[in-house]
Amino acid sequence: MRFLVYDRLLGFGDDYWIEDGRGSKVFLVDGKALRVRDTWELKDTQGRVLVDIHQKMLALRDTMVLQRGGEPLATIRRKRLSLLRNHYRVSLADGNELDVSGKVLDREFAVEYDGELLAVVSRRWLTVRDTYGVDVVHEDADPALLIAVAVCVIHLAEKERED
């Protein structure tokens, strides 16, 4: 499944739709302005919250937290030793980990679980400016989780660049 994310709208307090490969709206990223921490909700087309996304306030390294239905889903932070490429670790609530690596600021990276590719984030196959794609390649993968991971990783990388 391929999803299109309009990058120019990705920001604190912004709302934007994520479309499928046919151009149909599938998910809404609802930015929550006027909050102490960066916060978004990933919603379906009926307005149901699928994933809550927020910044962890008291952490040594920038950390994003994902929740589903008020329950912890995942924690995302940059790996300590990642010099040439961006590497992020997604610690799932069930104890498993996802690995995110690539050129995050260029929107060219992959999400893997135990060496198996789950999703590819890329601008290469798109002609629309300021847009990147999230291609969920594993049939059993959770698209909402992988899109939330992409949003978080990009946010963390851009915040790090600003600092």
UniProtKB/TrEMBL annotation:
It comes from the Bacteria. InterPro entries: LOR (IPR007612), LOR_sf (IPR038595), Tubby-like_C (IPR025659). Belongs to the LOR family. SUPFAM superfamilies: Tubby C-terminal domain-like. Signal peptide: none annotated. This is LURP-one-related family protein. It holds the Pfam family LOR.
